[in-house]
Design a protein that fits this description.
This protein is of the alpha+beta class. It has four helices and nine strands; from the N terminus they run βαβαββαβββββα. The protein has a single domain, classed as Alpha-Beta Barrel (ADP-ribosylation fold), CATH 3.20.170.20. The strands form three sheets. Strands 4-1-5-9 form a four-stranded antiparallel beta sheet. Strands 3-7-6 form a three-stranded antiparallel beta sheet. Strands 2-8 form a two-stranded antiparallel ribbon. The protein is globular. InterPro entries: DUF952 (IPR009297).
């Protein structure tokens, strides 16, 4: 497992179903998707990884939101580990307190069924 302090200043993101996030907010913690639970950590993405994540894992899924966190708020349970294509991805180990979310944006789908990322992320 690798960790990089310079990435602690970056935002990290989670694409999640609206109803799952609403339930997490009521509970105060996000426990992860079925894939997260299977893998033993919550999959997050850096800004430059979001397009690939949306295309690969969320095509044709409606009612999604993008939740932004500040990596530095997530402490030592956030680890940057080798994943898709040998690239380092942010993984969060444990229950993710929803109070740490900095922003949420709805993700409509484009004509091809790919979630459309907010301009602040893709610019």
């Amino acid at each position: 497992m690798q960790s990089h302090d310079h990435q602690q200043t970056d935002p990290v993101y989670k694409i999640v179903r609206e109803d799952d996030w609403a339930a997490a907010c009521r509970a105060g913690v996000y426990l992860g998707s079925a894939d997260d639970k299977r893998d033993g950590f919550i999959h997050l993405s850096a800004a430059h990884q979001l397009s690939g994540t949306a295309r690969k894992h969320f095509k044709d899924q409606r009612n999604l939101i993008l939740v932004r966190f500040q990596a530095s708020d997530l402490g030592t349970r956030l680890r940057w580990e080798t994943s898709r294509g040998g690239e380092l991805f942010p993984h969060f180990y444990g229950s993710l307190p929803t109070v740490l979310a900095r922003e949420q944006n709805a993700l409509p789908l484009d004509a091809d069924g790919i979630p459309v990322l907010p301009e602040v992320v893709v610019s």
